Each structure stands twice: as structure tokens, then as C-alpha cells.
Recover the amino acids of this structure.
């Protein structure tokens, strides 16, 4: 069966944001499992909320492009980068699993 | 439904309690206009990148420096250091403010003459004055600052040959407590070289020793070092008075005052770290006034201040080419200007502002230039809002040395615009063209044709 590996680009994976992280409306993010805090801009916050609700990247893309003055190609590139950063900052469950 | 303004999503870790090695808040406040002229409009008209110089800032800075010295010392004269920025328009703003010219090559000397500076108000510094340069300068009664003994002997020969008595000064280097000590230029104070040169001039009637000169270093952050230098030059002047009954007409303290830039590796921003003109003026004038000159014999104080007078007046406008993510997760932004036209990014963490407004969210990034070279780094760490392709930025404090040390490499050098006192922009140097670069090339006939 086709297996997702760490080499599979994240954009094709379902990004699972850690369930226990706290989001505030100002874009302040707190990860109680590490004590780290982060900040994101309003659109970043919106995306994280969608991901936390379990929306797939394609769905996020459709919603954002509908709402904002941007095109699919631009947003796809930015989302890819953003999702990569989320993973790098260890805010996704995927990373937790990798550690095991 | 009206769509919302788009901004790239960004996220970054907050480092609570850790001193931020990245830019300060003011850095990312947008700068949309320079002296009332729109950045976007300037780029639209003159292309990107583009150097912009504020005449208002030059004149204000000059007035501030002049005031700082003239309120503390009775006889002060600035001489514009051509190499710092020799765009004719810039030189002439300084000349209109009363500055003489200070040059270090035949080329700069010609420029000063052409700008209309009287020969007798041109100071000729530097180790490389050719015989032709010296003959011209002697004929024009310019001030020759002797750098080494070979030059001293050459001037002596020319003076005899031309039957003229050139006005000369010697450049003196010394220990001012600042390291590294600049001892490769001029004659050393501590080991007696300076006196040796003075004696050689004084015991010979073919030159007139009118001044003593020093330039103790570059981007000096310690006013006290200037106090030491001024005291040592005063000591030489008083010694000459005693030994030869000759009054030295001027003491020239050279340049080197730090500008408002931030040196690489410094935690303090240049605006906070650099002394102001009053502090330099206080150290220098106190040292000369207390040295023991009779009141009517006080020497003229000459200053060849460069960077501190022009850095702040210069801006570089540029445009984002692309964004990247480096393998270690850092954001990299590629700009359309590189170290080829911003030489000073090797020395300074230049302040860089976005030229359009953003939300208050920022990212730490590396800024690269467009050259295909690893050294082409504009800022190693900078905090900026999420810039995207075609966004503009404004680089601050680039007025000194960039427009003279820039390299023509890979691309053409940009235009320079001066914004006048009435906020009117004037092109003072056109953008280079293929023609301006190839104009001096010569292609041998036999290399004209080829088949591939
Ligand atoms: C002799 C001399 N005078 C003046 C200057 C101007 O120095 P700054 O731009 O640091 O004020 C220099 C620069 O190196 C110099 O060598």
C-alpha cells in the first residue's frame, strides 16, 4: 500500500495541528506541551483554525482564495511554506508521531 | 462580496526575555515617502533599484556640524571629502554651504576644479599624487598634504623646477588609544618621524609648512581619541613655533566621525551608539584651546568629515524579486540590489524599511542581493513584515561611499535622484546603459566574427 513518508511533501499530507495548543484571537499561540509560544498574523490564525478543525489543504485553499485577493498559485506556494513552518516549529501531531 | 487584502501567512516563535538580535520595531514602520516624494512614484519613473539623496538632510546635517564646532572654536573650516560621495550635485551642495574640497587623486582634483572650487581651497591628500597632479596643484596654490618622504623630495624638486613655493602640510599618524592604529599613512608622532619631516621642510626654503594633518581612523566611536590627536598636533604646532618662530596656520583633524549607521555585530543601534557632533567638537576644541596657543595665534581648525555628513541623506530604494525558505527554516528574501551597489552592507546592518503598509506581524529573514555569489548578503538578520514579489523597500543611511565604491558587475548601476529643498526630484546621475559600459571597450577586428 502507498505509505506517506516524511519525504512526501507536506502539502499532500493531512496536517494535524496539535489538539492541545491554545489560540488567541490576536494570533498568540501557546503550546502547553513544550511551553513555547508563537505569533501568527490574522490569515495565519485563520488557516491554523481550519487545520485544527481537520480541513484538508485543498479545502483551506479554496476557502482562502474565495475570501482574499490572491490567486491559487500564489496561495498554494505560501500555504506550502506555512505548513512547513508549522511542522518545523513542532506544532503538528505528525511531528509528534515521528518522534516515537 | 468584496475580497479581503491578502497577506502571506506567517508564524514565528516568540523568544521571551531573550535580547532580540534582529531589527527594532521602528525598522518595519513603512516609509512610503522621502521628503514628500512617493517611493512608488520614484521607482515607477526611474526604475529599481534607485539611489535617492535628500538635499534637506544634507544641509541640516551640515548646519548641525558647523554649529557644533563654531560655537566652541573661533575658526572652523569644513572641506568636503570627495571620495565619500563625489556626485557633482552633492559636492556643490557642500560647497554652497561653504565647504572647501578635500581630494585624494588627480581625478578627484579635476572634479573639484571643474566644480569651481578655487585651487587654493583644495586640500590634496593621499599617498598617490603623480608628478602631473602635483604640478597642477602647485600651479593652483593648493594645499599639499605630504604622506611620505618620497613625496616630500618630489615636491621639493618640483618647487625648484617651477620656481614656486608650494604650501604644504604633513600627515601625522599617532597613538590615540584606538586600535588598530592607522600608521601606514603619513609620519609617526611618537617615534620622531613627524619631527624629521618638519625639520626637512623647515630647513629648506622651497616649501611653506602651513598645516598639520591627521586622520586617525574610520567610523570612530570615541570622541576622546580626537582629543588625544588634537593635543598631539597642537604640541607639534607649538614646538614649531618655539623652534622656528613659525605659526602653523591650520590643524586638520581629517574625517572618521561615526555616522548613524549600526556596525555589524553591535547590539546598540547606530542612532544610540554614535556620538553626536557636539561630543566630537567638544573633545577637539577643548584640546586645542587648552594647548597653550596665544589667542591671536590659534590655528584654523579644518575638518574633512565625510560619512557623518552624508550617510543619513542617502537612501536606496529596491524591490523584492522572490522569497525562499532556507534549509534551516529561515526565510530568505531576494532583492534587486546587491553588495555591488551597496558595498557598505559589508560593514553595517543597514536599517531597511518596507515601502508599503502591512499588518504588525513580522518575520525574521535574511536579505540577499541578486548576484550569483554567496557573499551577496544585504542583511544577515532582519525583521520585516511578510514581503512579497514586487514589494518595495527603503534602505537607510547609504549616502557615504556607496556611490563611489559601487561596482559595475552583472547589471547596470542605478540612477541617482536628488530631492531638492522644495521637494522636487532631480536626476543627478542617469541609470547606466549598455552604451555607457561598452563605450570604452575596443574589440579587435579579427574577433568580430564567429560561427557557432
Ligand atoms: C584623509 C581623509 N580625510 C577624510 C576622510 C573621510 O572620512 P569619513 O568619511 O570617515 O569621515 C577620509 C576617509 O577615509 C580620509 O582618508
Amino acid at each position: 500500500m502507498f505509505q506517506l513518508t516524511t519525504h512526501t511533501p507536506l502539502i499532500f499530507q493531512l496536517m494535524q495541528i496539535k489538539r492541545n495548543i491554545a489560540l488567541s484571537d490576536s494570533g498568540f499561540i501557546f503550546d502547553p506541551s513544550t511551553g513555547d509560544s508563537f505569533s501568527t498574523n490574522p490569515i495565519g490564525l485563520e488557516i491554523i483554525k481550519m487545520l485544527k478543525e481537520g480541513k484538508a489543504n485543498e479545502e483551506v485553499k479554496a476557502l482562502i482564495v474565495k475570501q482574499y485577493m490572491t490567486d491559487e498559485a500564489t496561495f498554494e506556494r505560501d500555504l506550502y511554506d506555512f505548513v512547513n513552518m508549522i511542522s518545523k516549529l513542532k506544532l503538528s501531531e505528525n511531528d509528534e508521531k515521528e518522534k516515537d | 462580496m468584496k475580497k479581503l487584502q491578502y497577506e502571506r501567512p506567517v508564524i514565528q516563535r516568540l523568544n521571551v526575555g531573550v535580547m532580540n538580535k534582529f531589527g527594532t520595531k521602528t525598522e518595519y514602520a513603512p516609509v512610503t515617502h522621502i521628503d514628500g516624494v512617493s517611493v512608488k512614484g520614484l521607482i515607477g519613473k526611474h526604475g529599481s533599484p534607485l539611489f535617492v539623496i535628500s538635499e534637506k538632510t544634507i544641509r541640516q546635517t551640515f548646519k548641525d556640524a558647523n554649529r557644533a564646532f563654531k560655537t566652541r572654536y573661533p575658526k572652523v573650516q569644513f572641506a568636503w571629502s570627495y571620495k565619500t560621495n563625489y556626485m557633482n550635485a552633492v559636492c556643490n551642495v557642500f560647497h554652497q554651504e561653504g565647504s572647501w574640497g578635500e581630494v585624494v587623486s588627480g581625478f578627484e582634483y579635476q572634479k573639484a576644479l571643474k566644480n569651481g572650487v578655487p585651487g587654493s581651497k583644495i586640500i590634496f591628500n593621499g599617498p598617490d599624487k603623480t608628478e602631473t597632479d602635483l604640478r597642477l596643484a602647485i600651479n593652483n596654490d593648493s594645499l599639499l598634504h605630504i604622506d611620505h618622504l618620497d613625496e616630500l623630495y618630489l615636491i621639493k624638486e618640483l618647487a625648484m623646477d617651477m620656481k614656486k613655493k608650494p604650501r604644504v602640510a604633513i600627515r601625522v599618524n599617532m597613538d590615540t588609544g584606538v586600535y588598530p592604529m592607522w600608521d601606514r599613512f603619513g609620519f609617526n608622532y611618537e617615534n620622531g618621524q613627524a619631527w624629521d619631516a618638519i625639520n626637512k621642510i623647515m630647513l629648506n626654503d622651497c616649501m611653506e609648512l602651513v598645516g598639520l594633518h591627521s586622520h586617525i581612523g574610520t567610523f570612530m566611536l570615541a570622541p576622546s581619541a580626537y582629543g588625544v590627536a588634537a593635543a598631539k598636533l597642537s604640541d607639534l604646532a607649538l614646538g614649531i613655533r618655539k623652534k622656528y618662530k613659525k605659526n602653523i596656520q591650520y590643524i586638520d583633524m581629517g574625517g572618521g566621525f561615526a555616522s548613524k549607521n549600526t556596525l555589524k555585530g553591535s547590539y546598540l543601534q547606530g542612532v544610540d551608539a554614535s556620538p553626536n557632533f557636539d561630543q566630537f567638537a567638544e573633545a577637539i576644541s577643548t584640546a586645542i584651546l587648552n594647548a597653550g596657543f596665544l589667542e591671536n595665534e590659534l590655528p584654523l581648525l579644518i575638518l574633512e568629515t565625510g560619512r557623518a555628513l552624508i550617510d543619513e541623506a542617502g537612501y536606496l530604494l529596491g524591490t523584492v524579486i522572490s522569497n525562499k525558505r532556507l534549509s534551516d527554516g529561515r526565510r530568505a528574501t531576494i532583492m534587486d540590489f546587491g553588495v555591488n551597489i551597496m558595498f557598505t552592507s559589508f560593514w553595517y546592518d543597514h536599517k531597511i524599511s518596507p515601502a508599503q503598509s502591512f499588518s504588525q506581524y513580522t518575520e525574521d529573514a535574511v536579505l540577499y542581493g541578486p548576484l550569483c555569489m554567496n557573499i551577496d548578503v544585504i542583511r544577515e538578520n532582519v525583521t520585516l513584515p511578510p514581503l512579497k514579489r514586487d514589494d518595495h523597500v527603503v534602505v537607510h543611511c547609504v549616502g557615504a561611499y556607496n556611490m563611489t565604491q559601487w561596482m559595475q558587475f552583472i547589471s547596470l548601476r542605478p540612477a541617482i535622484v536628488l530631492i531638492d529643498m522644495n521637494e522636487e526630484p532631480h536626476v543627478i546621475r542617469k541609470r547606466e546603459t549598455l552604451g555607457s559600459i561598452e563605450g570604452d571597450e575596443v574589440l579587435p577586428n579579427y574577433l568580430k566574427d564567429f560561427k557557432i
In short: The pocket of pyridoxal-5'-phosphate is lined by residues B 81, 84, 102, 125, 215, 218, 254-257, 304-308, 400 (CB under 6 Å).
